[in-house]
Amino acid sequence: MRWTNAKLKDLQARLASAYPDAKCALDHADPFQLVVATVLSAQCTDSRVNITTPALFGKYPDAARLAKGKTADVEALVKSTGFFRNKAKNLLGLANALMMRHGGQVPNDAAQLAALPGVGQKTANVVLANAFGVPALAVDTHIFRVAKRLGLSEANTPEKVEADLCRLFLRADWIELHHQLIFHGRRCCDARKPDCAHCPVFETCPTGTGKIADPHSGLTFAVQEARDGSGFPATQNAFLNTSPEAPKRIISLVPSLTELLVQWGLASRLVGRTRYCIAPKWIRATVPDVGGTKDPNLQRILDLKPDLVILEKDENPKSIADALTEAAIPWMALDIRTLKDCMAAWIWLGEKLGALDQAKARAAEFKILIKPKPHKGPRTLTLVWKDPWIAAGPDTYVGDLVRQSGFTPQAAKGYPRLSEEELDALNPEVILLPTEPFRFTKRHALELQKRFPNALVHIVDGQAMTWYLSRTELGLECLRALLKC
Ligand code: SF4
Atom 8 of ligand 1 has which residue's CA nearest to it? Predict the structure, then answer.
């Protein structure tokens, strides 16, 4: 990713507004305490160091007293920070070096600091920045991870990442940025479970937006984050492994997707399905059922040890996606709104599932059927439910199928509920009654025909109209045939 000055400024503004409290998290009263605390923070949390240092500084408040300390005593005082023998040895060596070379004072020079026992470039930078206000950008594990995820650096060592960051950002901003990136890594961009759904810098992040695989884990995160109020944490994959190995234990909570996997010869990889995944018929006898689409049984899903769960944004509960994320199980949620979405989804799924040739061929054949500017045909109302009446609006997959078939879809966006008055006011020229999800029958068609004597009322194959991906071509064919009636 290319970072322009404007983009860098935007990133900094977002970080500043998200972490106004960003500062050094190690408690210290002077440069000596800071350098000691920083040495102790290696492989240890700052909060653990802050619990440990009061007793240590109570007994050894300066370099002079620590230089005379006994190894066993210092070890006992720093034991809880881990690697205590090595850390105690370094602290005693550090105190002695400070006494011999710097009169007991911590130097404010990078080279002199880095030459002290237990003090590397990172510790030296932390001390320079926080004890002396010297611009420095120490790269710790959080900054290393976040910088790479944000595409600020592609380097593979902290020193090189530091060099990249120093090149990109103004010297005057280094100290502040250092703290902000650490806060971001701790509070949001976690190593295992980054909270991309609530990330303040999401839009600027090539990893969070799925443009690149996570340099830290090799996983690809949310391709399109749900900031549309749906409540779904991500509309596409949250943790879809990008390894060349295609998933082998797939659970599908989407009936049409289940059918698509069978069409692509991937049935042997299906280890679970919902009870509504009923096509082809034999799938019911061979693939275990994990419950309904609205209420899938989480435990059953987990017991099947899937390496991919496929959901649908509108139909499946967000809690399942959250629970899968919690259990580190890869999942993806389909969000198909148009016929073009279908073509993109075929390719994307084909790539991820190892069926790219079939996917490309299918998308290419289908592309020929799509009209860039479909003819504006009769005003058409597609009802998907009764009591209350619910219509499929023009911005839904069904709406686009209707439009591409030569009808003009009516009703408001989404799936609006219609009062009797609103239904009358629409005064459609054509009414489509799919047999799914509501089982519209001839009786309903007759009722509506009486109510709208000038309209053409058709009962249509609900699966052809709503099972995207597996029956998209069939849906288009059926509706186009209907237009000719
Ligand atoms: S979008 Fe995700 S990966 Fe990117 S910085 Fe935010 S939390 Fe980290």
Answer: 189
